[in-house]
Write a structure and sequence with these properties.
By secondary structure, the chain is α/β, with parallel strands linked by helices. It is about 35% helix and about 25% strand. Strand 6, helix 4 and strand 7 form a beta-alpha-beta unit.
Length: about 210
């Protein structure tokens, strides 16, 4: 299944509505999506509601991006928020207790609040090994290298903050989405976001 697992809506710092994101995802052939707004599950809950009401052919994995005390953590399969600044290890434990799974978002890029401590990376279920907004390829290379050393599964993420940035970081899930994420039955596929799209998505430039 073709999945987009790192997306932000206007429930946090994204530019577009959940509905607009879902429409774009369907247009480009995405089969699974997780709206991972910062520290709120509301975007995902709205997406689930829209998909159910309109019978859209896309599956929503509930998710959010938790701002832990050590950096950002992508939490999937959990339908309640964590407090901003929650200790990293507590966020991991809470995720697992609630039946979810967690992947470290854009590790090592400190200015984007990426987790860098190896022991922390070791405790998460997996690592975002490809982030389409990394213009310096070294960070993706480092993420993939460390994930391999720690024997952690990797996902890709567009880290989209608008609909036009969807589809640059795709994860292929082999089977039911949450189970595939838990079992590491994943494969990454992606390309670096073009500069014009990045500028539009991140800074609001070139928007119509």
């Amino acid at each position: 299944m073709i999945a987009e697992l790192h997306v932000h809506s206007n429930h946090s710092d994204g530019r577009d509505s959940v509905k607009k994101l879902l429409n774009k995802a369907l247009e480009i052939g995405i089969e699974v999506i997780s709206i991972t707004d910062h520290d709120t599950i509301n975007g995902s809950l709205e997406a689930i509601e829209i998909v159910e009401e309109e019978h859209l052919p896309i599956e929503v994995v509930p998710g959010f991006e938790s701002s832990t005390d050590e950096g950002h953590l992508l939490v999937y399969g959990v339908k309640e928020d964590f407090d901003k600044g929650i200790p990293f290890e507590e966020a991991v434990k809470r995720t697992k207790k609630l039946g979810g799974v967690c992947y470290v978002a854009h590790p090592f890029q400190i200015e984007r609040k990426g987790v860098w401590r190896i022991e922390a990376l070791r405790k998460a279920d997996g690592i975002e090994g490809f982030n389409s907004k990394y213009f310096i390829g070294f960070f993706n290379f480092l993420s993939l290298t460390i994930a391999k050393k720690l024997k952690k599964p990797v996902i890709a993420g567009s880290d989209a903050h608008s609909s036009k940035a969807l589809g640059y970081g795709i994860t292929i899930l082999r089977g039911e989405p949450l189970r595939a994420l838990k079992n590491g039955e994943v494969q990454i596929s992606g390309r670096r976001m073009p500069l014009k799209v990045w500028l539009s998505d991140s800074l609001g430039l070139f928007n119509e």
